[in-house]
Predict the structure.
Amino acid sequence: MTDSHPAMNASRERGAWSTSGYFMLVLFVALLVLFVARLVSFASGSPTDSEVLGFLGSVVLMPLALVGIAKGFYMIQPNQAAAITLFGSYRGTDRAHGLRWVWPWMGKVRISVRANNVVSEKLKVNDLRGNPIEIATNVVWRVADTAQALFDVDDYKAFVFVQIEAAVRSIGSRYPYDDIEHQEVTLRGSHDQVNAELRAELNERLVTAGITVDSCGLTHLAYAPEIAGAMLRRQQAEAVISARKKLVEGAVTMVEMALTQLSEKNVVHLDDERRAAMVSNLMVVLCGERDTQPVVNAGSLYQ
């Protein structure tokens, strides 16, 4: 049975034969000078029949040679490549920049291998908890394998844009937007981990097109407008609850320490009722939102 998996049919970049265009340019100029000199010599002399036949042959062959040499020239700029084809068959990639020359019947497809910067549109995604959020990313990518980029996908740039959107949606739905207790990996609080996972997923998705992602990061992250106000109030409530929790924990620790030191140093002996009253007063003082006013008790605690 034949395996039809796409990876089995993937193209692979390899080097192509080409030569320096400057050497061929010298040859072209020399041949052109020779052709012009032949024309001048024939026009100014009295040629014999054999010389006429030789001239006619050169008039036909030399222009064909000049046209053939001229069609073989092409230019490659730095961080640019040219895929060489022969009647639709891939023959290799030339990455040597400058003036180059290849056989005139070979096709040449230029492709940039420079870094490209893409900022995706703001996408609306439901996070892990189902909350609608807006998310966007910045991706720096480049062509690593020219053969795959040109021959394994129809339009590699459009392919990049579609896969960026798919990867951002996948990452956005994989984690919650925020966690007030900082016990989970979140989109807002775990930038390095989320960006690293996004880059890994993009590289996995784009390997089919011979594209590699150098870096990426979220550029926009926010709740969707329809729930932004409600989520802000929830965040404020969670922050208040968290602060209250810390405050109570600290107050309990301080009350416990005060009672222990009073007992150990024999400052005062407290029965259960007085101990309860002291705990109540200390908790009010430590947990109250407003400054407390001291009350002087001139009588007994039991009156």
